[in-house]
Each structure stands twice: as C-alpha cells, then as structure tokens.
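dumping the sequnces here before i forget
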Amino acid sequence: QLQLQESGSGLVKPSQTLSLTCAVSGGSISSGGYSWSWIRQPPGKGLEWIGYIYHSGSTYYNPSLKSRVTISVDRSKNQFSLKLNSVTAADTAVYYCAAGGDYFPRHWGQGTLVTVSS
Amino acid sequence: DIVMTQSPDSLAVSLGERATINCKSSQSVLYSSNNKNYLAWYQQKLGQPPKLLIYWASTRESGVPDRFSGSGSGTDFTLTISSLQAEDVAIYYCQQYYSTPHTFGQGTKLEIK
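..and the predicted 3d for all of it:
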C-alpha cells in the first residue's frame, strides 16, 4: 500500500515560489504504470487538479496554471515535487499529492496547507 | 476543459434510506476504443483527504462497502448509497479523467436528516 506525505513551506510571500515535496513509501516511484499528481483545495472550496507526471516522465498541467507550475520526480529520494511560481493569495489552499495507475488518484497524502501572505 | 456539474449541491437523507448524487459532464467521457467511462467518485470527510470510492464509473474500489454503487455512461452518472449510514456524512466529488485537465465536480454535501 503506497503512502504519501507532503512537506514544504506553509507560508509563502506573494510573488514568490511555492515548493512542496511528496515522499513516497511502500513502493517505488520508478515503478511503471503510475501517475504522480498534485491537487489543491482552497479553504472551504472544491478540488482543483494541478497536474501530474507520468511514470514515463511526461507531464500534464492544468492550462490555468501551466505557465507557473512544474512537477518533477527525484527517483534517488523516491519523491516528487511541485513548484508554483509568482503566487498570489488565490493560491492559498490545502495541497494534496496523490498517486494511481490508470490516471485517477487512488492514494492520497494527508494534505498540507499553504498560505500566501506577506 | 470538460465541465463537471453535480446535483444537488447538498442533500439530507434519513439513516437507512437511499441517497442519490448526480454528475453530468459537458462532453462524453466514454472512450469508444475500450468502452470505458473515465469517471471516478470520491468521498471527503471533514479534515481528511478525498478517498476513492468508484472508478470507471461503476467499479467499486477495494474495501468500499457494497452499499456504494456507481452507474451511468457518456455524460450522465449517478452515485447511489443504498442505505445511508452515519459514517457516510461527507462531501462527494465526481472527477473525469478522460482528458486533461482532470476536472472535478463542485461537490455534493451529504447530511443526515
């Protein structure tokens, strides 16, 4: 059973870069057939798909964020990461990492709240 | 983008009664080459991450009680809880994974009447 754990800065200043990491345990991030996703949820609101990186290394991003987002994998550390630059208050949310085969997330981290504020 | 619209936004059902949540996509999520609907349902309890309930529109995830079922095809889908239990109080989301971005519905809040 895969387990995922987000970590990173909980407070980011406007215009700066949000950086989060998702540590994977119970399996290898190098295993084929998995997609490694980031999804966010503003306080009191619904879920927004940010994007994912497929086991092949291909990345797919939400067009609404595409110019600002990068998802990458560090196989040596068995983790994947999210970078979102030029953040504003609208980027304040709980950020979830997730994983699954067949494109839909089956395993989710507990989520981490990122607040954008000066 | 495919827009996912759920109805109702909120729902109150008595314990033991049936709960039905609908999800409509702005375009078909049925992939003709494999005849699969690229539609999943998630349950999110307060303060917790979403939990996968149903995928391929009607396949129940391992460990999910059989009172949860999914149906529908093309653009119209339904999540049914056959006999509501107290632990089913949550917000339920549908998600299409037919094309990126993999959009979610706005959520349906399910409460006990």
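Chain B touches chain A through 22 residues (CB under 8 Å).
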